[in-house]
Amino acid sequence: MSVLGDKKLENVVSCSWEVLNERSLQDALTLETCEVKRKRSLECMVSLETCVHLGSQSDSVPCQLEINVKKENLRITEISIVSEARIIEIYGKCGEYLATSHAEFLDECEDMVVYVADYKFPQPTPECSLKFARMKVKGQMWLYGIYINTEKDTASPDSTVNFHNVNKILKESSHQITDKADKCKKFLQMYSAYCVSGSSQTLPNPQSLLKVFDSLYLSQGSGVGSQAKNASKCFSDYIPAFASFSKSKNEGVFESSSVDTAEKTATSVEADDCVKFIVQELQKHIDRKFCELAASLSCQIDKKLGEIQERQDKKLDEIMHLLQTVKNA
């Protein structure tokens, strides 16, 4: 029903499978905020109006549900799924693997089974995806209802990177980042400290930021390369788009050919625009690298889980064969 209080939410869920009955995916969702959180019960999650029949004609397409409440300024804290799937894989905002939930069996009636799975997100997220597996009928599944508990997203649209979450993810992944990535993270942390200390009028001068960047990357003589002679060149080596940054109305252009040119043109560019551009490009670069890392880890985990699943299926087939042999004997 996708209702939050008196507000009806639209376009917060999509699925890789088609809806086979007269319902919509929105009907299956029930959203509530932490302030009005109730004790979970089957009655508040499932009704005739929330039952959605999903199906696919292709065996190669998994049943995957995408949920996004970012446009509503919400973040998902907990989720409960009632369906015919015995196993549900939960993925995060960037597609990174979070957990596998083995659903609890509730009931069976007229060749329809009911399983319920619960998951609490370690960090509230505006987006997540659910991959369903082990359905009773291959290529078809009944989704009886999804109960989502949310909280208001208090972060402003222009807020800086949440380094607490970044450090936590890096720690949990046990992945050692490179020296260059670590220095880039320190640079963004230094800028974030300025951002949270006051208004845009207190932001540091772009030239000062470039000097900080120089000291971080070139102090050891091997930050980006022996040919990197100034911070603009350093930025260009990391973020190619930086070299093409320009402003109209005779505000000047950043060039990375020499220190003198950079100093002359930097003075003609408004400080706010320059700072915004630098931070946006660095954030895009870091986000892209983290997404690539998450995708790589997710691919490896999926491969391992697939191998484990294949072995389990083989063992189950052997057990069923032995039981059938004993029964026939």
From TrEMBL:
Protein name per UniProt: Uncharacterized protein
PANTHER family on file: ATPASE PAAT, C10ORF188 FAMILY MEMBER
Pfam families: PAAT-like
Organism whose genome encodes this protein: Gryllus longicercus
InterPro entries cross-referenced by the UniProt entry: PAAT-like (IPR028043)
